[in-house]
## 1
Amino acid sequence: MSMGAMRFLGAAGLAVGVALAACSGDKDETGNGDGAGAGQASSSSSGGGGSSASSSSGSSSSSSSSSGGGGGGPIECAAPYTDVTKGECDLLQQDCPPGSWCDVGSKEGVTTTLCKASSGGLKDTGAECKKTSECTTGLKCLDDHCSPYCCPSNDEPCKGGICDIQVGYPSGNFAMMCSYSQACKLFEGSCPQGQACHVADQDQGLAVCDSPSGQPVEEGGKCKFRNDCGESQLCACKAADDCQCRHFCLVSSWQQKEPGKGGCLPGRTCKSWGQPALPDVGICEPDA
């Protein structure tokens, strides 16, 4: 099941947004009833051109023992992975009693963490799914994969995925979960229909296919997340609250290419992005 607004987390120093907008409703996007009204998952990546759009602030994990999707021991996390008030359990550590798992819910009108009965599913971390009941304890079906809550500083316990989906709730809170998106190459248009190729990790030069955020933005328009923008674009920020969608481009040949395929729109010039893993990739910046 594709998410309505997937926005993936970018590394520090990049220029794409990370926080997820809240959404109304009493079910999350995976079809699980939730009193907290889980909202949309969103993906944010970074681009160039300044500082990165900041993510929502949150609390780091506790050090209780883990179970279910948490793996074989306490997960140490050096970055905020949620700002949901800790209640009965810890989302990252999955420290609920056997037969239950830790999820976001609502108790006495407060969005908090609750131990919920396991669905009894058999699919493990990263497996394809259509609903959470297919996934094993501690995992939720998110963007067609069984995903755990996770730590963005070390991608645990994603098991090959990336901790870059920020799931938002109507309360304004967020929690990070793993993504297992298909890899792609900029400018090739090789993603499945309805998805677009965006850079998810500039240090490794990794680009992935993202579903749209549900808030599409034209080139030059204001954005918060990488998948607000179109094919082979990024959400480039001069400041945390000053981000626009810009095309990536090929520095060596942009004048012979079309926008979205390595070139730039009129009134834009391709300038180097300065990322060693993508040496010929630049950003189409407005002419002075």
## 2
Amino acid sequence: MARDINDIERDLARTRTQLAGTLDELADRLSPSALADNAKDQASAWLQDETVQKILGGIAAGAVALVGIKFFNGRKRKKELKELQRLLSRR
């Protein structure tokens, strides 16, 4: 059964309207501000995870420990160098 030209034109108009709506929705989803907001929300949710917080806390504690060890070893080495200089100056 052949379709009437008016039916075809209505289908085309409806399809154009649907496509325009889809394109508008895609443009909204892919706008830089929407992508940035989405990334921010995902990062915030990720940081709220208890396991992630424990891991980050462990990394921070490890970094503080390493800085402390480096600091105290530097002081110890400096003290040893002064003692060595003192002993060598006595000669």
## 3
Amino acid sequence: MTGMPAALAEVVSDFKEVDGQDKLAMLLEFANELPELPADLEEAAMEPVPECQSPLFLHVDAEDRSRVRLYFSAPAEAPTTRGFAAILAAGLDRQSAADILAVPDDFYGDLGLAALISPLRLRGMSAMLSRIKRRLQ
């Protein structure tokens, strides 16, 4: 999977190994694994991503560009949005800025969720990645 850090390529590979509703089940598993925010980071200080169907906030800590930290906040009642955020957290947190910037903007198409999730929801994942990249440029 060219242009993806190994951790993100592994997530994509895992999604490619399952079909149909199993992909949605996997997305829900990711939603349940979204890391909690650190105690010193409040949602009010984070950037909103209004393109998401549900409230989502993100924070990019690029103080160390060789090990970028990503933080996401989404309500428990928004499992699709939380799942997308958790995929990005699992695949891109602690990666270098250069590696994150090299991720194809449409990598999420490789997850195979387009037939199961509305284009509006997929646009939310695209928006998250775009905002992360913008913070790193």
